[in-house]
Design goal:
alpha+beta, Pnp Oxidase, Chain A, 4 helices
């Protein structure tokens, strides 16, 4: 059953691991990789990566990407979003700290942030244009 707008936005705002997909060129399947991301209902999907990474280069070329988040318990639920890149900026300390804090225990955030090469990172921002979502109920 499809999720309502409020349900899908709330689910995307949870700290799930995103599966990002981007066109990889003619004769290739899309590149799909796991990412940490940030989203607030009604806003932009943001994630950061090394600016010299394969995914960063492919996203810059394609100008858009899609992301899937899912869970299997207590019911199987997913949300998929797709849209254009609105901005690509150098990652700020605030960006890195906010996204890291979504996924790491509080006592691990500072060490992770300090160990990251902030100057190598870029933050991509995408406003979802297309949504797919469902809650398929309990599995099994």
């Amino acid at each position: 059953m499809p999720l309502s707008v409020a349900e899908r936005e709330a689910f995307l705002a949870e700290p799930q691991i995103g599966s990002l997909a981007v066109e990889a060129g003619e004769g290739r399947a899309p590149l799909a990789v796991p990412v940490w991301y940030d989203y607030s209902p009604g806003g932009e999907v943001r994630f950061l990566t090394d600016g010299d990474s394969v995914k960063a280069r492919l996203i810059a070329k394609a100008g858009r990407f899609s992301m899937l988040v899912q869970r299997v318990s207590p019911t199987y639920r997913y949300v998929s979003v797709e849209g254009p890149v609105l901005r690509t900026d150098p990652t700020t300390l605030e960006d890195l700290t906010r996204i890291s804090a979504r996924y790491l225990p509080p006592d691990a955030v500072e060490g992770y942030v300090q160990g990251s090469d902030l100057h190598a990172l870029v933050t991509f921002r995408m406003r979802p244009e297309r949504w797919l979502s469902a809650d398929l109920g309990a599995l099994g």
